[in-house]
Amino acid sequence: MNHLHKILLSFCIILFSFSLHAQETNDSIAKANNKLVYKFDIKREIGPAAWRQTKDAFREANKLNADLILIHMNTYGGMVIHADSIRTAILNSTIPIYVFIDNNAASAGALISIACDSIYMRSGANIGAATVVNQTGQAMPDKYQSYMRSTMRATAESHGKDTIVQKGDTIYKWRRDPLIAEAMVDPRTYIENVIDTGKVLTFTPDEAIKNGYCEGIANSVNEVLDKAGVKEYTLKSYEPSGIEKIVDFMINPVLQGILIMIIIGGIYFELQTPGIGFPILASVVAAVLYFSPLYLEGMAENWEIIIFAAGVILLAIEIFVIPGFGVAGVSGTILIIAGLTLSMVDNVAFDFEERHIKAIVASLLLVIFSMLVAIVGSIYLSKKLFSSNSLLGHLALNTVENTEEGYVGVDMAARNMIGKKGLAMSVLRPSGKVIVENQIYDAKSEDGFIDKNTKVEIIRFETGQVYVIKEEDDESDET
């Protein structure tokens, strides 16, 4: 009986081991079949932000050892330089990259899409129209078109050729016809049964499928993966990095207006209470926070930041070096406003198309309104903060010295020197310096030019300086 129990126990152990091994095998197979799909969106104008996010997404996808990258696209295009950078990153990727065109892949978006390994389109979407244009929508000169034609052809050719066997003969056909890619740029390109000359090529989903520029029509990301044969998968979506979130937050017009108020307010408070340091520090920090995100976003150019800085310098010269409000002050104010305004709009090469004029006017109004609020608010706060009974009252001079009480704005001791004789310390032409009874005074000659070391006599005192003539003895000696 004991022997039978041992046999049964051994059989159960063996059966359990086989079951455990089978479960591990099934788990390994399931894990192998489960693909990690990394998805990120390009649903904005192709520019610095799109390129930064693409780099971040690719970096994270490689770190996670993703099996597939899926780009969810809807864009009307953008800057060629950044589209080409994204295209190159896609072509050099060791991870397969699919694109789901959700409505639009125009211009730069078409270039990026053609670089991907597989293209899927939503019903009603389009791809094409990749002619290089300027900010007004007008076609650029042919040297730009030539570069774009070559780039589009090279991108299509990078996907190689398919082998097709017909009637025993082996022939090769481009997987994506380079001539079709060129026709998306050049209206002179003619392709039989595809496009006539004089038109730039744009495909609908059915047309794209027919000509090898789309693998299928889908209405969702899940449907794309299903049509691509990816049945079991884990979908990981790209989340913008901290810097991306900060940039998006900082370019908000409301926050930009607040930063302008701090910039102007800081300058005003520093002028009211020189030497404190905190107001000008706040102004500098606000300027950095204002221009940095706009620079990263590709809106603020170096020259726009420079003219703002030049405006601040001119304003400082007007205030501290040549008091008053003349050419330097007016020029400085204009440059400050121009720098703040132009940094908030895309660079349009001084193209005064209606939509660009509206953007510039809107930015200008925001800057002027923010500056007015800052100035009015600063005046109000300065009265509150620096009044005699306030917390910061000790920083302001509140004592009044009335002339009725004998207070004057200059030293009146020189009045007692009238009739005294002294020596010219410098050449008087007619102004200069004289020394009388070992005291130095600002002096003005009544006799015109007086040489240095000439004996002089003080005859009167006005406006903070003494008036002198040559001593009579000197005059008689000279004659």
Offer a quick outline of the entry.
This protein has 479 residues and is an alpha/beta fold. Helices cover 47% and strands 18% of the residues. It has helices at residues 2-33, 48-63, 80-91, 108-115, 142-157, 178-183, 205-210, 221-227, 242-250, 253-272, 278-296, 302-320, 327-342, 354-385, 472-478, and strands spanning 35-42, 68-75, 97-106, 118-121, 126-128, 161-166, 169-174, 202-203, 216-217, 233-237, 421-424, 431-436, 439-445, 455-462, 465-470.
Please write out the topology.
Blueprint: H1 2-33, E1 35-42, H2 48-63, E2 68-75, H3 80-91, E3 97-106, H4 108-115, E4 118-121, E5 126-128, H5 142-157, E6 161-166, E7 169-174, H6 178-183, E8 202-203, H7 205-210, E9 216-217, H8 221-227, E10 233-237, H9 242-250, H10 253-272, H11 278-296, H12 302-320, H13 327-342, H14 354-385, E11 421-424, E12 431-436, E13 439-445, E14 455-462, E15 465-470, H15 472-478
Parallel strand pairs: 1-2, 1-10, 2-3, 3-4, 3-5, 4-9, 13-15
Antiparallel strand pairs: 5-8, 6-7, 11-12, 11-14, 12-13, 14-15
